[in-house]
Amino acid sequence: MHNLPETPAHRQRMERITDKEDSAELSFTCPIMQQTSWRRANNTRRHLTTRYAMHGFHFTICDARCWEPSEQCRCRLCGEPAGRYHLMNCPNNSQSLTQLTAQ
């Protein structure tokens, strides 16, 4: 359509959009998204499920309190490596998602 040159700002924007799209696709492979109860009409906790799928509430258990998991992250509850969805299988987690988000 237009024959304008690509600028660095445009290239960066397109990379951010692609990264967000990839992240959204990955969130649907999260085990919690495989359940169907969160899809029901008038589900007042739907936002917890979708937020967990996107970032796993990693910041609530990471000993470094970081948002994005890395190889150095450890779970402050059990001491094991803390990946994005570690919270679902943490043997020392006794709180619900609702309780964790209220912290």
Could you explain how this protein is built, in words?
The mean pLDDT is 80. Helix 1 packs across helix 3. The chain is mainly alpha-helical. It is built from four helices and no strands. The radius of gyration is 17 Å and the shape is flat.
The residue-averaged pLDDT reads 80
Helix run count:
4
Shape: flat
Strands, total number: 0
Order of H and E elements? HHHH
Any idea what the radius of gyration is? 17 Å
Largest sheet: none
Query: In percent, how much strand structure appears in the residues?
Result: under 5%
Unreliable spans are: none
Roughly what percent helix?
25-40%
**CA-CA gap between termini:** 51 Å
Structural class: mainly alpha
In short:
Helix content is 38%, strand content 0%. It is mainly α.
What labels would you give this structure?
mainly alpha; 103 residues
How are the secondary structure elements laid out?
Blueprint: H1 8-27, H2 31-34, H3 46-55, H4 97-101
Helix pairs in contact: 1-3
